[in-house]
Amino acid sequence: MKRPIAVVGAGFSGAVIAYRLARAGYDVDVFESRSHLGGNCHTERDAETGVMLHRYGPHIFHTSEERVWRFVNQFADFMPFVNRVKAITAGRVFTLPINLFTINQFFGKTFSPDEARRFVASIADASIQHPRTFEEQALAFVGKDLYEAFLEGYTTKQWGRHPSQLPASILKRLPLRFNYDDNYYSHSRQGIPRDGYTDIIEKLVDDANVRVHLAEGFTKADRAGFAHVFYSGPIDAWFEYSEGLLAYRTLDFEALRADGDMQGTAVINYCDAGVPWTRISEHKHFAPWEDHERTTAYKEFSRACGEGDIPYYPIPLVNEQDQLQRYLELARRESAMTFVGRLGTYRYLDMDVTIKEALEVADRFLGE
User: Fold this and answer.
1) pLDDT of residue 167
2) pLDDT at position 191 over 90
3) pLDDT value at position 315?
4) Which residue out of 20, 189, 279, 342 is catalytically annotated?
5) Is 55 one of the catalytic residues?
6) In this structure, how many other beta carbons lie within 10 angstroms of the beta carbon of residue 345?
7) Is there a catalytic annotation at residue 261?
8) Catalytic residue among 300, 313, 352, 357
9) Average pLDDT, stretch 83-92?
10) Could you give the CA distance from residue 52 to residue 333 in angstroms, rounded to a whole number?
């Protein structure tokens, strides 16, 4: 009799792997330390307003990977949704990402696309040829004024580090446009599942070969009965912090409820360093196909992750890559075990990349 497979974590990484292996005939045990499925993508109805809540912060699905898009659409009716983020800085409201409208409004101009491109090039720091940090990338990208208005304060609050301590790769995820396109993402496929993300996870693990263990952790002692372990928890926790604590950020949320419409859009970023929250998300706007008389919004506060906190974002500090490499080497030495997902690989991963990599991990395991 084949020994079962253990999957640690019931977010997208774990659920996709469990689904693929179960359909291939493997017995799979999914262990989830929280009392619900979905990980940080968990969604649920607000009991007071009926609004579908993204319990751990906004999640907009966006991808250009056709395989991923086809896969998720087997389990959900994805409704069209374009994330149009607003930003408040120095008492004024702008649109993000930085585009032609942002540039013209901020500088009081009426630039054409070519004029704006030349203008931004003239204020960017051309002396920075090989940006290493977020700050250097920003100054070489958009110049001092736009950097200080939209990026410096927000980034410091979000990551708990000044941009001079963060890698340039973080900023490379943010577009700069010289047209009036205010779609936050540039992927060809974008949407939000009509019934939420947890509904998808429930369908992925709804298989006779899958046993789900909620509110149950997984330790090294538990692995003895399993042929292979797929682990999506924090990589440093698995190795009992032998190389020290890796840096994570966690989030606190302050709920706001009111009648009607609170802010008129789904997400507003607060860029000023003096404002303690990073953004406010009004969740009824993530489901414009629904109608609610009352509304629910959340102020989002980022802070260092302590013992017992939920780790959200790995902090890829420029000067701490050696520590991470030691953990990755330990992971490579583990037999019959695969580290997956944002926490298991200590990388910032969007949902579509998480699903893509989980499918590929299953492919390799199944020899496909």
Assistant:
1) 85
2) yes
3) 83
4) 279
5) no
6) 20
7) no
8) 300
9) 97
10) 42
